Amino acid sequence: MTDAQGTADVLRAHAEDAYAGELSALAAVDDRPRPPSWRLSPWAVTTYILGGTLPDGTQISPKYLGSERLVEIAVATLATDRALLLLGVPGTAKTWLSEHLAAAVSGSSTLVVQGTAGTPEEALRYGWNYARLLAEGPSRAALVAGPVMRAMEAGSLVRVEELTRIPSDVQDSLITILSEKTLPIPELNAEVQARKGFNVIATANNRDKGVNDLSSALRRRFNTVVLPLPDSLHQEVEIVTTRVRSLGAALELPADLAALSEIQRVVTVMRELRSGMTEDRRATLKSPSATLSTAEAISVMTNGLSLAAHFGDGTVRARDVAASLVGAVVKDPVQDRVIWQEYLETVVRNRPEWKDLYRACRDLDVPD
Length: 368
Description:
The chain is α/β, with parallel strands linked by helices. The chain folds into two domains: about 65-225, P-loop containing nucleotide triphosphate hydrolases (Rossmann fold); about 235-365. It is about 45% helix and about 10% strand. The protein is built from 18 helices and eleven strands. It has a five-stranded parallel β-sheet with strand order 4-7-10-3-11. It has a two-stranded antiparallel sheet with strand order 1-2. It is globular and about 70 Å long. The termini are far apart.
């Protein structure tokens, strides 16, 4: 559902629906050259992603807080015949950025292949309606087009999420599509040729366990953009604040984030344990097994928002974030517990302004 009422009722609207007003405003003032089949020019796509003020005064909210040059490289890549691979550790907004790029370029972000260990080759190519196949034999009517094939026929972008989760032999089915811009259908002695505007945005996690490395042949067909973790504490706090407020509004949580102190403390904990060093660089720390990304901080704060709304006074406090914070850090109940307790006693306890957070975390304690 894409009408106003339908969008209001869904838990999470697609980017092209949630930001339809901004996309329309950009299209109205966008007089720059557009690549074939693009809804907006590369300049307008970049403005939509990074935010800005249009000549008519319309404010475009930033969707991605990070390097402007990286976004420009990503957009420029999509305007060529090279596919785009967004690479980074978990929580660097790879999926978020790919969704908004597809929404701005093609007007739709819903052509998606979600990569898993069980993703079949049909997900990247096509399948069959077996009832019609048995009744009629191989025919175009019996063929079921997948997202990649539909994007080729429409001249639009298709997203392949978690590409390295897909088995290697299935990944390589993209090679012909990316190099020849053609999808053979040998059963029909036919092929689908991509229309102008077709391209692929893939995302991949470079730090997860159990991934399938891309073959050199497939990797050569992507232009890789590595998305880094936020450079500074201030930038990461801004990202978390923006996303938590958005999620809180979508979930209709009547809680208050007026004070940023809790967000700043959660982000500081994540950054210190992630880097193995305190923010003032005076002490080294052991890092837990968990990937303490910006996404984890957003999850901790969103859960804190829910606790404050339903079981507190509506204001997020230390006790509201403590449980989720401990859960985010302590993934390994043996090794991570020791690291967390050491951090509590040597860092958190010695910060006078963090006494309430120290007490809240100690009261929880991690069970054996």
